[in-house]
Amino acid sequence: MDSSNIIGKLQNRIPSIMGHENFRKSAVLVPLVEIDNETHLLFEVRSLTMRSQPGDICFPGGRIDKGDPDPRHCAIRETTEELGIRSENIKDVTPLDYVVNDLGRIIYPFVGRIANIKEIIPNKSEVEEVFTVPLSYLLNTDPEQYKVNFHVTPEDDFPFHLIVGGEDYNWQVRHINEIFYKYEEKVIWGLTAKILTHLIGLINNNE
Questions:
Q1: CA neighbours closer than 13 Å in the CB half-sphere of residue 195
Q2: Among 2, 83, 125, 130, which residue has the least CB neighbours within 10 Å?
Q3: Closest CA to 126 of 80, 167, 172
Q4: Which Enzyme Commission number(s) are listed (predicted)?
Q5: pLDDT of 176 over the 90 cut
Q6: Is 45 exposed, middle or buried, given 0-12, 13-18 or 19+ CB atoms closer than 10 A?
């Protein structure tokens, strides 16, 4: 096969994320609600009976199913299931930047408005409780940040003889910044805090 044939095979393809078919894909909704004429963000506390991250604070969302035509549909579906509201009660769903991490996950965040929070009836099998935080508080609060360092530990049978440097190879030590927001007795951190920081940055940049 010559180079012209190779280019012909590739020139019309749309680039994507390499290996995306092996990634676990999820979608979440950042719900905006109005309380006493002030905008709040709504958060969930994960049920204490859940196997994964019980008691953690998160936004409504979950894994994209085969029946979801797109991530937006998943975010809305998961929100209706977790908060017990109708999809018609979720307005103006708008995409944020999606997250790709080294643990093999892609998360598609959206922001939207919940029109009537009085209709919320949390699904107790997934949601311990819900609470809200005023947007004004989040816009005027600098979160705490801490580094988490990752160390490289090759397996015992790693073929050091195949790489330049062998056992003395200079592995790059990576780290992530964990973000913490505190509001009254609640602590928002992890992926939820990362998405929240992204949204706050977008709001501040557009003022």
A1: 28
A2: 2
A3: 80
A4: 3.6.1.55
A5: no
A6: middle
- Number of residues that this document lists for the chain: 207
The enclosing H or E element of 172 equals none
Write out pLDDT tens, residues 45-70: 999 888 888 999 999 999 999 999 99
**In one letter, which amino acid is 34?**
E
Indicate the burial class of 75 (C-beta count within 10 angstroms; 0-12, 13-18, 19 or more). Answer: buried
Burial class (CB in 10 A: 0-12, 13-18, 19+), 88: exposed
Q: Place 102 in a pLDDT band, splitting at 50, 70 and 90.
A: low
Helix, strand, coil percent values for the chain (each to nearest 5): 30, 35, 35
The string of DSSP letters for 1-69 reads --HHHHHHHHTTPPP--TTGGGSEEEEEEEEEEEETTEEEEEEEEE-TT-SSSTT-EE-SEEEPPTT-S
Residue with tokens 């790489």: 163
Phi, psi of 188 (to 5 degrees): -105, 120
Q: Which two tokens stand for residue 182?
A: 């505190």
Please state, in angstroms and rounded to a whole number, the distance separating the CA atoms of residues 84 and 123. Answer: 6
Whether 28 contacts 107, CB under 8 Å:
yes
Helices (H) and strands (E) in the chain, counts: 4, 11
Nearest to 203 by CA among 28, 30, 26: 30
